[in-house]
From TrEMBL:
Keywords: 4Fe-4S, Iron, Iron-sulfur, Metal-binding, S-adenosyl-L-methionine. Belongs to the methylthiotransferase family. MiaB subfamily. Residues 530-606 form the TRAM domain. The keyword Iron-sulfur applies. This is CDK5RAP1-like protein isoform X1. One of its GO terms (biological process) is regulation of primary metabolic process. GO terms for cellular component: cytosol; mitochondrion. The gene is LOC120250089. NCBIfam families: miaB-methiolase (TIGR01574), MiaB/RimO family radical SAM methylthiotransferase (TIGR00089).
């Protein structure tokens, strides 16, 4: 199989396959697809006898699953396909035929300088941070395929991507509205160019990505033919092939879910290239199967990237000037890198938060989330780390202790409650009670006293009573959140709730309960902000304050609170570089003067390093390393 190696191991690139047509041909370009896919290659277009080469695009990390051998017919002027299944009886015969076929293909990598741009790209993203990071992965794949130029207006693009969210109906409706406009640009291309509305070189191809693509599949593709390609979250490597398929009149659709795909080998093209913050996806999918949630059906089962690939990507970001990384995953703290495990560790050793349970048992335990945080915080001492979105069940004590001990792991925890009612939690299949959740909150604050806690809440879930809603309001008051995402329940097809429950809470009741929850939350979070007045906080400067861009800068505290301050020259606490104004990427010590109950305002004291920052506790006057 050594002679096949050049074909099977090439990175993202175009390859030139020189096919000799002077004798019997065997073409081994049959099934360049992931193991979970099925697609057979055939060529019905006649080749002239003088034709000596064709150009094929080979996507990376695709496996030759079977070799469909074909023979050129001088009578028909085409390629006849015969069944490769006949070769299955003899493995050695299969390898011999395949190797001989590969030997006839001389593979040369086409230099990047020879590639011509295939078109300009416009992209929009809806939904969570994972979708933003996925869009960066897609841009990297498309850049390798020849789509290098990104434009800020859809009217100037030959290729339009819209990355979608399927969590709630409202998000899907926004996508349909945008698709109608993109379809107009495509359908009325000639008149749009004539009137100056569009500057694209040909009618744009429209590509729907993400969770909505997986959930609705053919419905999107068949909707008045407004969309050319539908591609699910695990099939982005296949985008170049799907776009080529459209050119030949085929449907461009691949929404297959994978048990292995993590895109660990792809370096994302950062959407905000000058930003000092970045997203890094460390795992994909979710095994929790909460009854209200569509994510396991659109994102698939959990799988984690190897620690080494994450460390490598973070190192690249550090070299680019990034100072803060948000680690991403649908269930980020269930991270489990078992790639280096030789001896299987029984899943019973997988420690959950006390009082919590899980429907899915871990078969092989590798490096956990605390191990990853340990390595990242040690190797990058001047970089700050956050993470989202976790599940409350995966907060073992070792994770909490390492968050307390490492100054560069932000003291901010997203702890989705969804509801404050034990009976509703049971219907949601969350795996814990109200009491267990409150016990976890108390443990977190005992171990990490100055931690900021945020949450998610759903109002009006199936069968929710006024008493159950009151339990949620009282939970918000009892915990005191720094931030929360709150929504009225939107039933999703294919979920456990859709199959087993009735969405019986009227919409007007849902909205009334949502407003009541928001009012209680605002009072709670306002108190958390007020407590920061009189403290000194470390701020990573992210840019000008949009409300006063000429005079003020803005950034976030360790807990995630937004802080603005006047931009004045400052000395550094350690470096002898004189006074200068802070710039994006600087860490600045800011004394908090005022709270608006939704943001903070302070006085900048000095520039500093993350590892040198000292915080003075207003309660005790003690100096605390954070």
């Amino acid at each position: 199989m050594a002679s096949l190696a050049p074909l099977m191991n090439q990175p993202h690139a175009a390859f030139r396959a020189n096919l000799s047509l002077q004798r019997c041909r065997r073409l081994s370009l049959c099934s360049l697809l992931p193991p979970s896919s099925s697609f057979s290659f055939s060529c019905s277009r006649p080749f002239s006898s003088s034709a000596t080469s064709r150009i094929f695009t080979v996507a990376p990390n695709l496996l030759f699953r079977c070799f469909v051998l074909s023979r050129f017919s001088p009578v028909s002027g085409g390629w006849s396909i015969f069944n490769a299944g006949n070769l299955r009886s003899s493995h050695h015969q299969f390898v011999r035929h395949a190797t001989a076929a590969a030997a006839e293909i001389q593979v040369d990598q086409v230099p990047t300088s020879e590639k011509t741009s295939k078109g300009r790209v416009y992209h929009e993203t809806y939904g969570c941070q994972m979708n933003i990071n996925d869009m960066e992965i897609v841009l990297s794949i498309m850049k390798n395929a020849g789509y290098e130029e990104i434009v800020s207006d859809p009217e100037n693009a030959e290729l339009i991507f819209i990355n979608t969210c399927a969590i709630r109906d409202n998000a899907e409706q926004k996508v349909w509205q945008r698709l109608n406009y993109f379809w107009f640009l495509k359908r009325e291309w000639k008149s749009n160019v004539a009137t100056g509305r569009s500057q694209s070189k040909h009618p744009p191809k429209i590509v729907v990505l993400g969770c909505m693509a997986e959930r609705l599949k053919d419905k999107i593709l068949d909707a008045d033919k407004m969309v050319d390609v539908v591609c699910g979250p695990d099939a982005y490597r296949d985008l170049p092939r799907l776009l080529e398929a459209v050119d030949y009149g085929q449907k461009g659709i691949n929404t297959l879910l994978s048990l292995e795909e993590t895109y660990a080998d792809i370096s994302p093209v950062r959407i905000a290239s000058n930003s000092v913050t970045a997203f890094v996806s460390i795992m994909r999918g979710c095994n929790n199967m909460c009854s209200f949630c569509i994510v396991p059906f659109t994102r698939g089962r959990e799988r984690s990237r190897p620690v080494e690939s994450i460390v490598r990507e973070v190192g690249e970001l550090w070299q680019q000037g990034v100072k803060e990384v948000m680690l991403l995953g649908q269930n980020v703290n269930s991270y489990n890198d078992a790639s280096g495990v030789q001896d299987v560790v029984p899943g019973s050793n997988w420690q959950l938060s006390e009082g919590f349970s899980s429907m899915c048992k871990v078969k092989t335990m590798g490096l956990r989330f605390s191990d990853l945080l340990d390595q990242l915080s040690t190797e990058f001492p001047e970089m700050r780390f956050r993470y989202t979105s976790p599940h409350p069940k995966d907060f073992p004590d070792d994770l909490l202790f390492i968050m307390r001990e490492r100054y560069n792991i932000c003291k901010s925890i997203h702890l989705p409650a969804q509801t404050g009612s034990t009976s509703v939690l049971e219907r949601m299949r969350r795996g814990y009670t109200r009491e267990a959740y409150l016990d976890l909150v108390h443990k977190i604050r005992d171990i990490i006293p100055d931690v900021g806690i945020s949450s998610d809440f759903i109002c009006g879930f199936c069968g929710e009573t006024e008493e159950e809603h009151a339990d949620t309001l009282s939970l918000v008051k009892a915990v005191g959140y720094d931030m929360a995402y709150m929504f009225a329940y939107s039933m999703r097809e294919r979920t456990h709730a859709h199959r087993n429950y009735v969405d019986d809470v009227p919409e007007n009741i849902k909205q009334r309960r949502l407003m009541e929850l928001i009012d209680v939350f605002r009072e709670s979070t306002g108190q958390r902000y007020d407590l920061q007045v009189g403290t000194t906080q470390l701020i990573l400067v992210e840019g000008p304050n949009k409300r006063a861009p000429e005079t003020e800068l803005i950034g976030k505290t360790d807990r995630g609170h937004r802080v603005s301050f006047v931009n004045v020259p400052l000395r550094h606490s350690f470096d002898d570089d004189g006074e200068r104004n802070p710039i994006v990427g600087d860490f600045v010590e800011v004394y908090i003067l005022k709270s608006t109950r939704a943001s903070l305002f302070g006085e900048a004291k000095k520039r500093t390093r993350l590892s040198l920052f000292q915080q003075v506790s207003p309660a005790s006057g003690d100096t605390i390393k954070v």
